[in-house]
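Q: What changes when threonylcarbamoyladenylate is included in the input?
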Amino acid sequence: MKTRIIKINKNKIDIGKIRDAASIIRKGGLVAFPTETVYGLGASAFDKRAVAAIFRSKGRPGDNPIIVHIAVKEDVFKVAKEVDERAIKLIEKFWPGPLTIVLKKNKKIANNVSKGLNTVAVRMPKHKIANLLIKESGVPIAAPSANLSGRPSPTNAKHAIEDLNGRVDAIIDGGDVDIGVESTVIDLSSDKAVVLRPGKISLKELRKTIGEVKLHDGREKKAKSPGMKYKHYSPNARVIVVKGNKKNFDRFVKLYSVKGKVGVVDYGNINLMAKNLFKRFREYDNKRVDYIIVKWSFELKDGFEVGVYD
Ligand code: TXA
Ligand code: MG
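A: The predicted holo structure follows.
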């Protein structure tokens, strides 16, 4: 299939182009688009066939459910069956933004969005292009990250084109994303609030808003968030995270340079690290690097918790 590349300036949005993309979604097609976290690959969440096409074009494992994106807060009721007080508090505080909430599923959402679960993950992105695309489509948009399954998430259109050109109807090029890592996923489908996937919104901020929140242990055999079973953020190179001082880091770089080709990731600021990490992963993969050595010097007090991924 021929993939249309639609370039849109996020500071001067051409609504005609958004409408073109929205009409593709309405007709059951697939459109990759920017959000503030990473690029998503969208289809109508009401259209079972379109959702099935997402799985095919990404090569996504069949049991990994997809996040549904909305443009106005009230639309959470079109996606979820029950929205309790905890959810309302989180929505008021963090939407639009990088928080995904798992709730009991509304029947209108296509079953293959949630892959047999009776829950649905929903989020309202804070990105003008994403927001307008959802509004103009007139339907909630189911969208996983716009990468081939197993590759690092795309943080600009070039990454999405690299993975999905010829496999989807259109890719909106809206420039670099702001955050660079995926949304935090919190499960509120039972009495116990659990963070299934760590992200920009920290446990501390969540606890301040709704009280007790647990962090799900990704190593558990039967992962609650099915996506946690699979490899994430994974370049072909082996990633080595080095904690501690510069001397320690330099020692590792030297050591691994003897074993193979080394790429280094070193940012002094955690937001810059998040924004550039996946881009660096892809660059180093293109250069066929063997080891990516990441310098980690952050205290994780505010935002970005470290998760356990296999
Ligand atoms: O920032 C983001 O969340 C990006 C942008 C595009 O919104 N999306 C994204 O989607 O990262 P994806 O498909 O790469 O990751 C979705 C995660 C997976 O770990 C999946 O298992 C989990 O959310 N998930 C989706 N629906 C779920 C559900 N009903 N219950 C539990 N986990 C769910
Ligand atoms: Mg993903």
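Observations recorded in class: The chain has ten helices and 14 strands.
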